[in-house]
Amino acid sequence: MESITTKDKTPLGANYIEETKSVEFRVYSKNATMIKLCIFDSIQGENPVMVLDMKKEENDIWSTTVKDYILNCKKRPVFYGYRVFGPNWEYDDKFEPGSSVGFKSKFDDKNNRFNPNKIAYDPYSKELSHLPSDVNPGFNMFRSGANFHLIDNSKWAIKSVFSPKKDENIAQISPRPFNSEIIGEVHIKDLTQNINIPEKGTYKGAMRFAKNIKNLGITMVEFLPLNEFDSKQNGTNHWGYMPLGYFTLARKYAYDKSFGNLLYEFRQMIDEFHKNDIKVCLDMVYNHTGEGGLVNHNVDDANLFSYALIDNSSYYKVYKNGYYRSNSGCGNDFNISNDGALNLIVDSLEFWVNQGVDAFRFDLAAALLEHNVECEEIYDHINSLAARLKEKLEEKNISVVDDFSKAQKGIVLIAEPWTCGGKDCYQLGNFPSYWAEWNDISRDTIRKITLRPNEVTPNNMKDIIEGTYSRFNGKNKSINYIAAHDGFTLYDLNNFRQKSSSTQGGSTWEICGDYDNNAYKQENAIRKQLVFLFASYGTPMIQIGDIIMHTKNGNNNSYNKDDGTNYLNWDKAVKKDTFENRTMEYIRNLIKFRNENSIFRSNEFIKSLTYHYDNGQIADYYNSGYWNNPLDLFFGVLINSSQNRIYIASSKGDNNMTITLPENLIGKTWFKCIDTSDFSNISFDTKEQIEERYVLNPQALAIFMEK
After folding, report:
1. Domain of residue 128, CATH code
2. Of the candidates 128, 278, 554, 655, which lies 20 to 30 Å from 700 by C-alpha distance?
């Protein structure tokens, strides 16, 4: 197995220079007028032991260098941060921490929020010393409101932690087509928290669980955010979509939480996943940060952790009145079009690629299509970061996969192609061809096939089978899914008419239902939805919890539940003769069926399709009375593979339906692979020969193979 050698150096931040035995500190700030590097002996309770002026270089980079013999960074971590002065708080050599010397305003007409009484951690930090809530639940030490702006927080501020890392070798998976992957989305703690191992809920616990994930049929794990975040921010935050740093790992997920070991444990996890032929995808949140913006919508009162202190107007989209734009819904949209913020994103991707990461999912990625440092939403498909990211990464010798049907060396970029608000915030199909995209059209239609069948036409079902081909300009870039972290689980969307009253937030428009609590209809619907997921053109994604029929008891926004609501319970799934075990085995065999039939991953897939009426005849392309009729009860698609022809027949009717299978090729016969209404059959074997006709049970789907 090939391997790569990890690297921990970054263009900015703290880096050890072997030749000079020194540590170089570099930080971006366009609008600062003075930056002082502060070095501490401990993370809390002490004043800095060293304060050094930094010098402004080209491209708005500030730097200074400290000799290793002073820091001794190879033996113990360095804790550091920055005091930053700017136009609204001018530098004066008489300034003392805790004073107002040089103060002009909390923010000015250029939206600067410099405050040298607050220590800023480095945006390029590889580790953070502690979290804001470890100091004060209300974050008072970090705020600018009332008289908080005059409190020197250096003894309590979050510090950047630096210790040079040794390079390591990590196993590397040979190139394979992206559309051959089976993506499994999961929260790293939820994956193993209910398993009786010492390392449960950690990177090391996930590493120990790699073989189990492989046995499910998953080939790429997509982890919810792993960057450092404060789980007590705004109440409780479990999912981690409030990142404090883009080069950091969340310490709470480490088995060994001591300083300097986070990255090593993460690398070991990547290495073990790769040795089990499983790729790793990180969910990255570049549309906003965990700094949180304003407190109680008071323009004078902002949380000041890092980015806002170092250069507020460069890192965030801010209106002229001092308020932050919030199309992300999280209080502070990142200013992705600014050079400093843009370079930070590219550099952080490079950093994680250098740790062995294979793919990235970009949260609310429509933000990356913006190309305007002001607050107006201007989507640019030529000059934006999303449009230029492949070029930017290739300048760093990082290859990006641009044909999802070919085995190419490189990373995969996956967009969630919308944001929460703002003009034109829905951008499905508008990303460059080298971006894969989450497909909510596919998601909603697959649900409607069983939950709202009278809203689905044969043309809608054809569109799903073909991976919403026209929406993606003929490119195979659809990420097909039924459920993701954000919403109901697969089990719950087929068992609840509405979200639980205990849900905080969560949409009320989700497509869901309980089939009048008819257990047959519920299980048949789940099995049917899964066929459309794995038999469609594109790359399938499933929550790992959905494989074992995890329920959140109707909670469709469990971002704040660090408990059994989210923790996966494997007990029922491993017991024979349970619904959970039966469904897990059904999914495993469905994945195997997809893998064994290469036509599902072929560029020739769509060309191989013909659509059929219930009498077996090919559906007339011009028969709009059929294609646009939501009340038509039958849908049949023949996959004309040179390997084995496959026929999928689906009924929306409430009664038995006798159908005629397409005419066989000479010397061939149809065999049944699966019938979703036959719960005893989960094997997808082809032992039962079928003659010309077949009876579909109510709402059932059957797959046939010609041999």
Report:
1. 2.60.40.10
2. 554
